[in-house]
Amino acid sequence: MPGDRRLRAAILIFAVLALASVAGPWLRPFDAWHTDWAQLQVAPGVAHGHWFGSDAIGRDVFVRTLLAGRISLLLGFGAGLVALLFGLAYGALAGTLGGIAERAMMRALDVVSALPFLLIVVLLLTLFGRSGVLLVLAVGAYACIDLARMLRAEAARLRALPFVQAARALGAGPWWLLTRHIAPNLIGFAFVYLSLAVPQAILVESFLSFLGLGLDEPSVSLGGLLAEGVQELEDAPWVLLAPASFLALLLIAFTVLGDALRSRLHARAAA
Amino acid sequence: MSAALLSIRALSVRYRSGGGVLHDIGFDLARGECLAVLGESGSGKSTLARTLLGLLPAGAQSQGRVQFDGVPVDAAGQERLRGRRIAMVFQDAAASLHPLRRVGVQIAEALRRAASTRSVAEALREVGLDAAATLATRHPHELSGGQRQRVMIALALASSPQLLIADECTSALDPLAARGILDLLVRLRSERGLALLFISHDLHAVRRIADRVLLLHRGRVDTCTDRSAFFADPPSPYARSLLAAAVRGDTPPLTAGEAWLQVQSLSADYDRRPALRDVSFDLPRGAALGVIGASGSGKSTLARVLLALQRGHARALMVAGADPLQLGRAARKAWRRRVQIVFQDPGNALDPRMSVADTLCEPLRLHGIGDRSSQSLRVAELLAAVQLDAALASRLPHQLSGGQKQRVAIARALALDPEVLVCDEAVSALDVSVQAGILALLHNLQRARALTLIFISHDVDAVRALCDRLLVLEHGRVVEQGATADVLRDPRHPHTRALLAAAG
To answer: Do A162 and B343 lie within an 8 Å CB cutoff?
Structure first.
């Protein structure tokens, strides 16, 4: 099936990018912050050893891109995991309880999502200082809103099904329903939406880093590199192009992956 | 007599993955004739319909000769015929209509595409929908199931087809609406000279509408004969077993004794609309009450209130010695051991991630009954009680058939030795022969365990065989109740009479 081919291509791209960002930097003899005074702002090439070129102060773009990819992936997965845990707990609980509790929980979520997210994150990051943990929590909280909404709807659908109603009739309370019936049946659904939440988290984190709200050296993420690249755009476009391509490929691979997983889940649900 | 309109010879369909679905099918359909294709689920009925329209899923291959109106039909021919000279009506009208467009617009579009000169009002009137009302301006979800099916038929007729394929088109409807659709199809046949391929598993519907019956069994033609011959003298062992399954036993004698359920003036809402109003009845211990009514009559809401799965108000309510609306949490959990329910939809009756053994252990774990070894003994006992092989204990729901799932659901309801068992359309989604098995099982269990049974159904035959008392609901009110034998022999309320006529 063509869908399968797309899925395989996406997995391959993702695996190459992930592997490269984990192992890649060791392939080259440069540190991320090593300054090669002899090779300032050289164009990509093989002869001088800077495969993707170097930036204005002689740092190797190849190594820096892969290291930044490592940070972006880490933050993205961290935030995705935070979103999954909170979103699953919140959405499943609301959907299981139903009634007034459900409505109150969902309206509270509406209020949170109506707040200007960026403003709050900027405030938090300036108040408490820029830290990886805070960044992961903030981006995760942002992604968790959508996830909680979708899981709430799915949990409410499950709650109305005969097997959950039968368990209620057998004397099961909300906690039993949540832990034995609703949450286990939500896991597959949650993981599919996680594959959509992770790229969203990576994108949001890159955006924050681009604005200078990300982590400092040596933990610069792709967004930070993009910000540096923009400054050298006229003299050395490769400084921008390398991290930008990495980010674009990563997001596309994730999106295709998420789409394929989702259509599989729906096909299974329909069968 | 002209040549056959549709002629099929040696038709076989196989899926690349799963092997053959249809084997060597052959039959003729004359102009204006109604041929019923009868068969249980998995017999290949719907595959046959899809093959004729060229709508087989990818990976399916068909062989054989199909002639329509004397011309051999190939893939391109199916394309040309579909929706023009051959039209189709499906079971699920809600899914076949565009949900966001008014039905009048949809019909107008179909008429325009067919270059028909008829108006939307005429098209609606033909299918028995009063065009003067605002019906054409409504969206599909604002119509009842029967009305939607009529709209589907109007759409199918827009191109003036010669053959209409109706695939289980009455199965999702309650008996009154289904009867209306059948009457409509009969009328259209005589008015338009329309040939009908009526695919169904419903013996009553087939008996009402068909000229000839083609019985499919595991993808092969078991029997193809006249309707009267088919019903009077079933020509094959399989046909005999199918008809025997449908003919059910006599009404059990009236039970008397202390009242085990007392309902006085019960009202309840469904989806914030009143669904039950002022319902009252008494039921002695060990009795079986049949509850019948059209869809939307409040049958399921009644079950949910009696099970304390939703709220309601009653002047007095007593189910198995307690009022479920008044109980505190701990008391209600204990009370639940005595009152259990089996739902309609076997597909969703069991948690897809839990094995049969886990499903049957759940009630025991919930109430802290027994340890691991006694629980597994109990599982074996319960499986035996519902006549299932003990080897099924490790299976997951998707590895079970519909009938097996429903037996597991019944076993789960029996796990706590309840005194009252509510069955909400518990056999409606099953094939006739499977239904008969489940009904016999319920009957025996009820006797052996002195269960008080509430059997909610739109199937009058099932109620007749199982229940000594009968309650008829219409729009949430009780319109008639009494001993089953009396009500069936001499129905007093017009709604009861309509229900019985539709079922007969």
So the answer is: yes
